[in-house]
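Sequence in, structure out. Go.
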Amino acid sequence: MHCIPGTSRSFCAARGATRLAVVLVALGGALPAWAQIRIGVTVSSTGPAASLGIPEKNTVDLLPREIAGKSVEYLVLDDASDTTTTVTNVRKLISEDHVDAIIGSTTTPNSLAMLPVLGEGRTAAITLASSSRIVEPMDANRAWMFKTPQSDVMMATAIAENMSNAGVKSMAFIGFNNALGESFYAEVAKYAELKGIKVVANERFSPIDTSVTGQVLKIVSARPDAVVIGASGTPAATPVRALIERGFKGRIYHNHGVANREFLRVCAKDCEGTFLPTGPVMVASQLPDASPVKKSATAFVRQYEAKFGVGSVAAFASYTWDAGLLLARAIPEALKKGQPGTAEFRAALRDALEAIRDAPSTNGVVNMSRTDHLGLDQRARVMVTILGGDWKYLP
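Output:
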């Protein structure tokens, strides 16, 4: 058995490190000498996106600590909702911690910023952010990025369909002044137009703004039948409150980035009767028995709430859980081609993620491909309304 100098043979045997030790000698000690799998996690557990990142971070505690006979270690970092910090975290996880894969980040801007680092480090990541731009169009960097949340395209079509069915003829948009807001507006506007719905106003605000009075005054003066809010987390409550204060009586729609209890608490009565598309997991108990995800979604809700309290589950928690499910499916296949801590294993893990078929998650049935690194279809989203401070499934 070839052990690293100074390391006992019993330690090497216990960790199954023999093959990695050989690689270490060949590469001058460039790779870590352990047999366990290392998964890096970077989420926004502080900052404007904290209401999303906290349940994502919580869920890491529920992920498997052993897969295919290998122990799994999770290295969790906070990127503080900041793109620069996210890039720093990802570089550290790849170059210093030698992780085999990464889960994160929480937001679209952060996840887009990760792409060049992933391509350079040839390490797969599973983002917890929504924009389809994170994985499309496919290129050398996006080849290493996968995602679990439903895309903004899927959610925008759900909103447009609901507006059309309700007789909405005109809409206004107010969203973040970042990639999330721009991406969601592009999709909502496109599908609204296909439904014959005119966009009469288009406004932006920052996630750290405490007032959007100017933007809302412009929206109200345009007299839309509905307003769509393209924002995530608790900052998305700011335009709702302003609309209600200005006497807006039309329909209000949210982006799916508000599906957590903290948003309900902050928005409170102002959000009563508003609408949003979300993952089936948020209304798991209300799903029809024929739903292909009811079993997996209900099981996750039960497990999460057993640890963090009744009513604590959030869509963002489920995105981390689904990332864990995908890794649990891919890792056994990757181990056939390489060992943890090696470039061969990282490449094989990426390929195995891409090959996943018919995998039930908490939000849909996943079918990945070389050009589709989301793998969800229309079964992965439902429409809900907020009633009595809770989510109500709309069949």
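Check: The longest helix spans residues 315-334. Residues 36 and 70 are 5 Å apart (CA to CA).
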